[in-house]
Structures are given as structure tokens and as C-alpha cells.
């Protein structure tokens, strides 16, 4: 995406968005070269932002003693000046920063001012966890909204969207701006009203699916003429409706590496229920056929790729056993059996999903939260339901699809923040045109990292977790135990219970007291077991006397598919110069490690002694790097799929 600063607001259409471009391999090569050049010269942008930040802080010092009336008068004049352009972002942030201090009690430090300036210039800002990224986003959003540009602050979940809107509402209102948050359960009318606000906080999934619904609901006719005709006549054609969004003007993506990288390997598919899905009898027959097959002879399970493939022997056996009925068709038979095998071997209750109120509900891999409105495609949802013996939902047909790469590239302006962009800065620059600007922490980090311990099995690992927790709790320190799934959090809870350690569990099936659990997690001697719900965006405040005892201690019980995600969980401690510590207590049979392809190292790691421990640590690092490479390949494959689709539809009009 081309560099664009917010200056004089955007002259917007009714539904502003960048047109889709048909791209070639030459375009990719050019983007790659530009990305390398941009990331290597980012220090020049950083230097310019630092100068502007110093000027802004000097101006803010000059208005610190101004009366509230004078300050609000200056804000009103600022609004007119920003809409007339060109914009002086430093002067604007000086006023907005002082209003923030008086309304929400947050006094921006120089790094936050620098970060806000970088966002307004369309950059990706990397700030350490705990450095106040939410305030940085709010400052930049306020300046952009004052210029007349609607702003979407994109968060990783609804909880954070609602929280950030509530926290910064006094700032926005004092500046004469409106703010709204999109929450789970809001109907179409409520969402349409919320999107009319100057600043909207919304989760990435909710936003992307609202855009897909707008495409489907308007038949893809989101140009000015079509929308004006629809508004004047009250109808835009058969089944048409007015869009919910006001277009894609300016997005500030919080936790940008999670949204733009980690979640960008899976396509976003909008679907509806249709007749003709798998019924219970058909699913039972597919599972019965699957029972006839032997792993590694008739089928191969590839956990790392979450895929099952039938061998020639497996296909032959199925053909021999089925001679009539719906499964006499080879393609239908093999597709059904593959789905049954995936449901049985790769979709585990408490990991990929839970059963709640008699329904299979997907658990978000990255946030640890339930997604009751989402379902798996290609019939997999029905086979998981059959496995769990619950009522089968209808099969879905695709109405529209997109990817995060395509969706966010359509914003007129894009910016982002994260604490962990270093490893993926080149990919973000190449894919989204965002140059990463690193902001130094306001205070030195007080974090202490202990060396990882890798045990041979899960039982040994959980015993070690319980023993370590008991020692820390006796010292009066709070402990946060991070797990990757509901099932793992329940296993950790059992280990603590057997050791007689009081604790609290926060996971997708126990989320009603989330705010209260997080509020207590930093108190002396408090032990909290949590999935990724306690990861990105969660601030755990230390209780009285805890800092003197060493602060919060974080125990990671599994490695994630990227080291960046591990660092996010570690970032719940030692925030803003506070003391804190982290360690990883792992096992060779952790899901990520099991998928590692290390035939020479694995036997050594199963042994005892110093060499075995070194081999185990190496094995964990290799497994994580293999997962990172595989996920990168999946993201590139998704981009290629989008491009092939565009090519096939080239004679049918625009790609969407």
C-alpha cells in the first residue's frame, strides 16, 4: 500500500475502498525489492518522527497550564484546520495529548507521541508490550477523525474492542467525536448505526465478515452511482440492501502481526446453510468405513498440515467394500471417509472445539475464545458433530470469500501496532506496504527469563509445573500458567488440584468472570491458569507488595507456532519497568513438538543427562521454526489462490 499521511482528511466516496488490482509475478518481485529498500531505510523515517515528537512534546508543555475552555477552543480550531489541510500532526497531537491527560488520566510519554505520528504516516509501530499501545492508537485515531476521516481501530477480539471504546470515550467526546464498539450479538441495524461513529473499535473477524456481507448484500455494487440509486429508490435490485460499513477509509490494526500474519493463512468464507448436507446415517456409514482402515497403510495423517490422505490400498479397500448406495460414487465416498478421519484424528474436543449446549462450537486458535457463529467448511462441521453425537447442522455453501491480505490492502490508509514485528517485518512490508518503526521502551525492562526445561512426557511436565508454582506461591508471587487449549488448561488445573494449590481457570468454557479473573491475577499468591484469552491486550496489574517480591511469574507450558506469540504471553509480566519473570516448562509430546521432522535428534532427546536436555531444547526450536516456515508457505499459497481466481474470472468483470 502506498505511503499516505492523514492530511486534510480524505475526500471519500460513499463506500471508499481501494480497487482490486490484478497482479503478476513481476509485481511481486517489484514489491519485494521495495519492501527490502523500505525496511532498510526505516531509520530515516524514525529520525523524522523523533524530531516531530520532540516538537510536539515541547508544544504540549506550553499548553499544560491552559484552562479547559481554552483547550477545547483550540481543539475546535484544530478540527477546522485539519479539514482544510495541510495537517500539522505535531501540533494536533500536542492538543489531543493534553486532552487525554485531563480526561482519561494518561499522560503520553515521548515514545507514545512518536508512535502516534508514525501511525498517522501509515506505518507499523513496534512497541514492547506494556508500553501503552492502546493510547497510541487512540491519539492517532482522534487526530485522523478530527480531520474528517472515519477510523476503524481493529482489535483481536470483542472484549478488547468494547474495553478500548469505553476507556477512551471521555477523550473522544471532549474533542467532539463519536465512538462506538461492535460487539458479539449486535444485529445488522445496530452495527450499521455503530459504524456511523467517527471512531469504531471492532475485532478483525467481525469487520472482515461485515465487509463480505456488504459485498453479497449489494451484489458487489459498492460504487457511488449504485449506492445513490439504491438510497433514492429504496431498492438496489433483487435481494439488495444498504451496506453496513461506511467503506474502508483508515484502519489502525492493533496486534498487527497476529491479524496480518498469523491469521492470514486461513481464508475468510461467508456461507449459508443449504439442503443436501451429510445426514446422521451417512456420517455413521463414513465412520464405519473409516474403522476398516489402518493408519500408515490405508491412510496417512499429517498433523503439521492438518490433513489426511488416502493411499492406493485404502482407496482399493473402500471400493471393494462399497458396491451400492450413495457411497458407490468414488469421489463422494473418499471425500466422506477423509472428512471422518480428519474429524477423528485432527479435531479434538477441548482443543479445536468444545461442546456447549448440545452444539459443537469452534475455539479460536489465536485468542482462545469461542466462535459460535463460525463453522468449518466442506462438510467437516457435520462430521465433527456426528463424532460428538449432537444434532447435525446443515451443510454450508460459499457466498463470498476473501483473505486478510486482500481485505486490509483495500483500505485507503492502513497502519498498525504490535509488540512483536521484528521477525515478520519484511513480509508485512511486501504484502501490505507497511514499514516497521521500532519505538524504544520508556523504561528499561525488568524481565528475567529462565532457561526452558523440556521433559520427556506430559505427566513429568505437569508435575514440574505444579511443583514450581507451589514454590513461587509460597514466596507470595502471583503465577500465570499459559496453555494453548481448553483441554490443556483443564489438565493443568488437575495437576494443581492434586498438589493442593488453590487456583483460578480462565478458558473458553469459563469466560463469564474474565474481567474479575484478570483483575485478581496480579495479587500476591494468586495462581491463574489461562489459555490465549490472557494473551494479547491483557494487562495484569500487580497487587500491593508484589513488585518487591519479584512481580508476576509467567509459565509457558507449550510453545506456539511462532516465537512472537510466546513473547506476547511473556509480555503479561514486567510491564513498564516493573519486575517480572518467565520460564517455559515443556514436554516432548507437546502437539507442536510431535509434528517436528527430526529423525536423528529425536532418539537422543528421549535419553537422560545434559546432552539429552540440549537435544530437547534444540528439538523444540526446530519444531517451532518448521511451523513458522509451513505457515509462511500457507500464506503465500493463499495469495496465489486469490490470483488464480482473479485470472479465471478475468473475462467476467472485476475480481469481486
Lay out the secondary structure.
Blueprint lengths: L24 H16 L1 H21 L5 H17 L4 H15 L6 H11 L3 E3 L6 H14 L4 E5 L2 H17 L4 E3 L6 H7 L4 E5 H14 L6 H10 L16 E4 L2 H5 L7 E7 L5 H12 L7 E4 L4 E4 L1 H10 L8 H16 L7 E4 L2 E5 L6 E2 L8 H8 L7 E8 L1 H5 L4 E6 L6 H8 L3 E3 L7 E4 L3 E3 L2 H17 L4 E4 L3 H13 L5 E3 L7 H7 L6 E4 L21 E5 L6 H8 L8 E9 L3 H4 L6 H5 L4 H39 L8
Parallel strand pairs: 1-13, 1-14, 2-4, 2-5, 3-4, 5-13, 15-21, 16-21, 17-19, 17-20, 18-19, 20-21
Antiparallel strand pairs: 6-12, 7-8, 9-10, 10-11
Helix pairs in contact: 1-17, 2-4, 2-5, 3-4, 4-5, 4-6, 4-7, 5-6, 6-7, 12-14, 12-15, 14-15, 18-19
GO cellular component, one term: cytosol
Pfam families: P-loop_SecA, SecA_DEAD, SecA_PP_bind
Subcellular location: Cell membrane; Cytoplasm
Task: Describe the structure in your own words.
By secondary structure, the chain is an alpha/beta fold. The chain folds into three domains: 25-269 and 403-438, Rossmann fold (3-Layer(aba) Sandwich), CATH 3.40.50; 277-393, SecA, preprotein cross-linking domain (Pre-protein croslinking domain of SecA, Alpha-Beta Complex); 446-633, Rossmann fold, CATH 3.40.50.300. Helix content is 46%, strand content 14%. Helix 1 (25-40) crosses helix 17 (425-432), helix 2 crosses helix 5 (110-120) and helix 6 packs across helix 7. It is globular.
Q: Determine the N-to-C terminus distance.
A: 19 Å
Main beta-sheet annotation: 7 strands, parallel
Strand content: 5-15%
Number of helices: 24
Classified in CATH, the superfamily of the largest domain is P-loop containing nucleotide triphosphate hydrolases
Q: Going across the major beta sheet, what is the strand order?
A: 3-4-2-5-13-1-14
Q: How many structural domains can be distinguished in the coordinates?
A: 3
CATH class value of the largest domain: Alpha Beta
User: How many individual β-strands?
Assistant: 21
Average pLDDT metric: 89
Please name the CATH architecture of the largest domain: 3-Layer(aba) Sandwich
Helix content range = 40-55%
Residue windows where pLDDT falls under 50 for at least 5 positions: none
Catalytic activity: ATP + H2O + cellular proteinSide 1 = ADP + phosphate + cellular proteinSide 2
EC number: 7.4.2.8
Enzyme class: translocase
Pfam family, one: SecA_PP_bind
Amino acid at each position: 500500500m502506498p505511503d499516505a499521511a492523514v492530511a486534510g482528511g480524505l475526500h471519500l466516496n460513499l463506500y471508499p475502498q481501494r480497487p482490486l488490482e490484478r497482479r503478476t509475478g513481476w509485481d511481486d518481485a517489484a514489491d519485494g525489492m521495495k519492501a527490502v529498500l523500505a525496511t532498510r531505510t526505516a531509520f530515516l523515517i524514525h529520525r523524522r518522527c523523533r524530531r516531530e515528537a520532540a516538537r510536539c512534546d515541547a508544544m504540549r508543555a506550553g499548553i499544560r497550564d491552559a484552562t479547559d475552555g481554552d483547550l477545547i477552543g483550540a481543539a475546535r480550531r484544530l478540527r477546522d484546520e485539519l479539514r482544510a489541510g495541510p495537517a500539522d500532526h505535531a501540533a494536533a497531537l500536542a492538543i489531543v495529548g493534553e486532552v487525554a491527560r485531563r480526561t482519561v488520566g494518561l499522560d503520553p510519554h515521548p515514545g507514545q507521541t512518536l508512535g502516534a505520528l508514525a501511525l498517522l504516516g501509515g506505518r507499523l509501530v513496534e512497541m514492547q508490550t506494556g508500553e501503552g499501545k492502546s493510547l497510541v492508537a487512540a491519539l492517532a485515531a482522534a487526530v485522523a477523525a478530527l480531520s474528517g476521516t472515519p477510523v476503524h481501530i481493529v482489535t483481536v477480539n470483542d472484549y478488547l474492542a468494547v474495553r478500548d471504546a469505553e476507556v477512551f470515550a471521555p477523550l473522544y467526546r471532549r474533542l467532539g467525536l463519536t465512538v462506538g464498539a461492535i460487539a458479539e450479538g449486535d444485529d445488522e441495524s445496530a452495527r450499521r448505526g455503530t459504524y456511523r461513529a467517527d471512531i469504531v473499535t471492532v475485532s478483525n473477524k467481525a469487520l472482515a465478515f461485515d465487509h463480505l456481507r456488504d459485498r453479497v448484500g449489494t451484489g458487489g455494487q459498492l460504487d457511488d452511482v449504485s449506492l445513490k440509486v439504491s438510497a433514492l429508490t429504496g431498492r438496489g435490485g433483487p435481494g439488495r440492501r444498504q451496506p453496513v460499513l461506511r467503506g474502508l477509509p483508515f484502519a489502525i490494526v492493533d496486534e498487527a502481526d497476529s491479524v496480518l500474519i498469523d491469521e492470514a493463512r486461513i481464508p475468510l468464507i461467508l456461507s449459508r446453510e443449504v439442503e443436501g448436507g451429510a445426514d446422521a446415517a451417512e456420517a455413521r456409514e463414513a465412520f464405519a468405513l473409516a474403522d476398516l482402515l489402518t493408519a500408515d497403510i490405508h491412510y496417512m495423517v499429517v498433523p503439521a498440515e492438518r490433513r489426511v490422505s488416502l493411499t492406493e490400498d485404502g482407496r482399493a479397500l473402500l471400493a471393494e467394500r462399497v458396491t451400492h448406495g450413495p457411497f458407490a460414487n468414488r469421489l463422494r465416498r473418499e471425500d466422506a471417509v477423509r472428512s471422518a478421519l480428519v474429524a477423528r484424528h485432527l479435531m479434538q474436543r477441548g482443543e479445536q472445539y468444545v461442546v456447549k449446549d448440545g452444539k459443537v462450537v469452534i475455539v479460536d486458535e489465536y485468542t482462545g475464545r469461542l466462535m459460535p457463529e463460525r463453522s468449518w467448511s466442506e462438510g467437516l462441521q457435520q462430521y465433527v458433530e456426528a463424532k460428538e453425537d449432537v444434532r447435525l447442522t446443515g451443510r454450508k455453501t460459499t457466498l463470498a470469500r476473501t483473505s486478510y491480505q486482500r481485505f486490509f490492502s483495500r483500505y485507503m490508509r492502513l497502519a498498525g501496532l504490535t509488540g512483536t514485528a521484528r521477525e515478520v517485518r519484511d513480509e508485512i512490508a511486501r504484502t501490505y506496504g507497511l514499514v516497521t518503526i521500532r519505538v524504544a521502551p520508556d523504561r528499561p525492562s525488568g524481565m528475567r527469563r529462565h532457561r526452558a526445561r523440556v521433559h520427556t512426557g506430559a505427566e513429568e511436565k505437569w508435575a514440574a509445573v505444579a511443583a514450581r508454582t507451589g514454590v513461587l506461591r509460597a514466596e507470595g508471587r502471583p503465577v500465570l500458567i499459559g496453555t494453548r487449549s481448553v483441554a490443556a488448561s483443564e489438565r493443568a488445573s488437575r495437576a494443581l488440584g492434586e498438589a493442593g494449590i488453590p487456583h483460578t481457570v480462565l478458558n473458553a468454557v469459563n469466560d463469564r468472570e474474565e474481567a474479575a479473573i484478570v483483575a485478581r491475577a496480579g495479587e500476591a499468591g494468586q495462581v491463574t491458569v489461562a489459555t490465549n484469552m490472557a494473551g494479547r491486550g491483557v494487562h495484569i496489574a500487580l497487587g500491593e507488595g508484589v513488585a518487591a517480591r519479584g512481580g508476576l511469574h509467567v509459565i509457558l507450558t507449550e510453545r506456539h507456532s511462532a516465537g512472537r506469540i510466546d513473547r506476547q504471553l511473556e509480555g503479561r509480566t514486567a510491564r513498564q519497568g516493573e519486575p517480572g519473570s518467565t520460564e517455559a516448562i515443556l514436554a516432548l509430546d507437546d502437539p507442536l513438538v510431535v509434528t517436528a521432522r527430526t529423525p536423528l535428534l529425536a532418539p537422543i532427546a528421549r535419553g537422560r543427562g545434559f546432552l539429552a536436555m540440549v537435544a530437547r531444547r534444540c528439538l523444540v526450536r526446530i519444531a517451532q521454526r518448521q511451523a513458522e516456515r509451513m505457515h509462511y508457505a500457507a500464506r503465500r499459497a493463499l495469495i496465489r489462490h486469490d490470483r488464480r481466481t482473479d485470472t479465471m474470472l478475468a473475462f467476467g468483470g472485476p475480481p469481486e
